[in-house]
Design a protein that fits this description.
The chain is mainly β. It has one domain. About 0% of the residues lie in helices and about 50% in strands. It has strands at about 35-50, 60, 60-65, 75-80, 115-125, 130-135, 140, 145-150, 150-160, 165-175, 180-190, 190-200. The chain has a ten-stranded antiparallel beta sheet, with no helix packed on it. Strands 2-3 form a two-stranded antiparallel ribbon. It starts with about 35 loop residues before the first strand and ends in a 5-residue tail after the last strand.
């Protein structure tokens, strides 16, 4: 169970002349400032199909050294399943118990799309060496925003993790902005693993 909500604030007061009976009041810290209602956790598994340009065999800056970095270009296909363990469920209320959607009073089990596919591409650019782009299969643009299925695609990116792994981040909201899915598929070789989480909020977050 993860406690990600709340904060510890250490206040140090230096000086002299503190009187007895000062009227200063300390406001209690809100343990849930974002209005999170409940959470869920996911596991991710899948496979990667290499695309073009092909993964280099040597370091572009030093041909005597093998290339070991992240090379995400191709198609990422992965599935999401609910994580049955409580270890990754956030403790919202601070009672040392995870607040999973469906178990919290007045909530339902979190919904999610079971399968995902996105393509990472690299194309030459006259103003720079290249441009990297990422797109979820089936995404559309409406009113300047990108949607996938019935969700708003807030972010899709790939960064390099430790050991040359590629780590993707996909953030989705429902159209009302209160349901949030945060997925983290990780690529090593042609195997995808990872985790994700879900949050239900009292108020729209976008």
């Amino acid at each position: 169970m993860i406690n990600r909500v709340g904060a510890f604030i250490l206040v140090s007061t230096l000086g002299v002349g503190c009187g007895v009976g000062d009227d200063a009041k300390v406001e209690p810290i809100d343990p849930n400032p974002n209005g999170l209602v409940c959470t869920d956790a996911f596991k991710i598994t899948g496979t990667f199909t290499p695309g073009t340009p092909a993964r280099p065999t040597v370091d572009p800056e030093d041909p005597t050294v093998p290339f070991t970095g992240c090379w995400p270009f191709g198609t990422w296909n992965f599935t999401v399943t609910r994580d049955p363990l409580e270890d990754n469920i956030q403790d919202i209320t601070g009672d040392a118990k995870g607040d999973r959607c469906g178990a919290v009073s007045g909530t339902q089990i979190a919904t999610f799309d079971a399968s995902y596919s996105f393509i990472a591409t690299r194309t030459p650019d006259p103003n720079s060496d290249f441009i990297d782009s990422y797109s979820l299969a089936g995404q559309t643009v409406q009113g300047g925003k990108t949607f996938w299925n019935d969700k708003y695609l807030f972010k899709l990116k790939v960064t390099e993790g430790g050991g040359g792994e590629c780590e993707a981040g996909i953030e989705l909201y429902d159209r009302g902005g209160t349901n949030y899915w945060n997925l983290h598929p990780s690529l090593k070789g042609t195997t995808i693993n990872g985790f994700g989480d879900f949050g239900l909020y009292e108020e729209p977050q976008i």
